[in-house]
Amino acid sequence: MVANAGLGLATLLITAFDPSLLSGQPCLSQSYYGSFSGRSIFRPDPSCLELVTDSLPSGTIVPASKDMAQLVWIEEQAIDDSLKSPSGGFDLQLEELLTKISTLGTAYSAYDFAGEREQVLGPPITHYDVMYRSGPSALLSLPADAAKVIDTIIPPFWKSTLLLKEPITYVPVPSDAVQRVRALLDSVKFDPTVAAIVSNISVPQMKNDIRFLTGEDGKSGIISRHSFSSGVRTAAAWLSDRFEDTGATCELRPFLAGFAPNVVCRYPSTVNTTATVLLSAHYDSRGSFGSTRAPGGDDDGSGTVALLAIARTIARKGITFRSNVELVAFSGEEQGLLGSKAYAREMREAGTNLTLMVQADMLAYHAPGEPAQLGLPDLIGTPEVSQLVANLSAIYSPELQVGLTPACCSDHQSFHEQGFPSTQVFERAGPIIDPMYHNSGDLSEREGYDFEQLKSIAKVQFATLLTAAGFDLPE
Ligand SMILES: *[C@@H]1O[C@H](CO)[C@@H](O)[C@H](O)[C@H]1NC(C)=O
Ligand SMILES: *[C@@H]1O[C@H](CO)[C@@H](O)[C@H](O)[C@H]1NC(C)=O
Ligand SMILES: *[C@@H]1O[C@H](CO)[C@@H](O)[C@H](O)[C@H]1NC(C)=O
Ligand SMILES: *[C@@H]1O[C@H](CO)[C@@H](O)[C@H](O)[C@H]1NC(C)=O
Ligand SMILES: [Zn+2]
User: Which stretch is the leader sequence (predicted)?
Assistant: First the structure.
């Protein structure tokens, strides 16, 4: 009572994910925290709550103080049955996590990012709360310091997302933007020039690039690409230089203190237009609890080298674009899409005319014996953009089996929330099956890591760029 005096109470509303709620209830779309594993979280004011509760089929109201500590959504990712641990369901693992959190003051000092983080000796954490529980997911309230490192102590195959301090306004993709994607879809047909360009992506080059990013080459000195590590900053500088080698102009754009910057690289348009096409991946990574190693060979070194392979091919072929083109490597993805959220918000505020964006996250792994695949998001994303990607895949990478994946959500979600047409490409037409997901063993040299699938998916992402932006080759 005393601590909260004068601050008043806020209320969270948690509902089943429903796009019509976001477009049909302005007071909700203006108080949106995000959607997580099939749920959406809002912070409506009392009159809004009154307005919507009658029409909602279901939902949970969670009282919360307005100066809530950091809110963190945690969930078990959609994973293949073969990866599920036989013992200890979500509840038991959550119990263990809470115990770990309560000793975080100590664990924190023992766990540092390869000696790269200042050792912090804090008192044990006493103020944490489970605010909501549903299925294999929960909403926690934690002190900010603990929240910042929670991704290093959650169980394997779990994911954590830090909610923003304030809710955002959800912007549905405007119908004229969808119309423009439909027009692209209608125009899709085999183009031998596009086929020749995209097949020029070099597998040996990608093998080389990934070994630098994971540190497998023994030369980069990278041990971790965790968002706060020094390795991730080595990677940022190197990526920026490599993209600039291909004729792009790059910027290291900070978005939050302590986090490595987004690497934003641009190619100019040869014609006078505001139209912009964006391809992206995230270059930060995660390791296992107790190990400082976070090589991120698949998650998301694979998407990052795909992006770089596309850039290298743009240079090799002398391609110029008839739209503005951005290739962006995001940071802070593992803490809750933080880098892309900041960048998508900036783009929205600047009124960027984004034709579409495609995020590449985890492209290289499939279970040994499985065919090469391409997964597209089942819930979060613009269906027309996913259809465009699927149709281009059928044309330029027919070897890929295309389907939907419940593995959700990467940086495209940040653009989706800001009303930009967007989708994600993923390595599997099903849930995650990579046993090294969020693991210190996520290297590129291992069974199941398939550079041919990586190339096939990179070709599709590249074909989407060429189709959406328009391009020319030198005479
Ligand atoms: C895209 O692919 C789907 C499924 O194969 C097909 O039905 C549709 O006609 C294609 N659309 C275009 C515009 O080619
Ligand atoms: C890519 O194209 C260049 C010439 O533009 C050629 O020298 C190179 O062998 C090609 N590489 C692949 C993998 O097709
Ligand atoms: C580009 O187009 C805009 C709007 O149509 C116009 O105002 C501007 O002068 C043009 N710039 C150039 C360099 O032609
Ligand atoms: C965005 O770009 C498209 C394609 O060039 C153009 O038709 C449209 O007018 C642009 N929209 C704005 C708001 O500039
Ligand atoms: Zn990822």
Answer: 1-24
All structural domains of the chain with their residue ranges = 11-162, 175-472
103-157 pLDDT, tens per residue?
766 444 444 444 444 444 455 556 788 999 998 999 999 888 788 888 888 888 8
> Which residues form ligand 2's pocket by a CB distance below 6 Å?
200, 202, 316-317
* CATH 3.40.630.10 corresponds to the domain 175-472: yes
Give the integer Cα–Cα distance in Å for 468 and 378.
Answer: 22
Closest residue by CA, ligand 4 atom 8:
275
- The pTM for the full model equals 0.91
Instruction: Please list, in sequence order, all residues whose beta carbon lies within 8 angstroms of the beta carbon of residue 118, skipping any fewer than 6 positions away.
Output: 112
**Closest Cα to residue 295, out of 96, 435, 441?**
441
> Which residues are found with C-beta within 5 Å of the ion, ligand 5?
299-300, 361
Write the CB contacts of 385 (distance below 8 Å, at least 6 apart in sequence): 181, 356, 358, 421, 422, 423
Separation CA 325–CA 255 (nearest Å): 21
Strand partners, 223: none
Q: Whose CA is nearest to atom 10 of ligand 2?
A: 200
Max Cα–Cα distance, the chain, nearest Å: 75
For residue 201, which atom of ligand 2 is closest to its CA? 13
Please say whether the beta carbons of 40 and 32 come within 8 A. Answer: yes
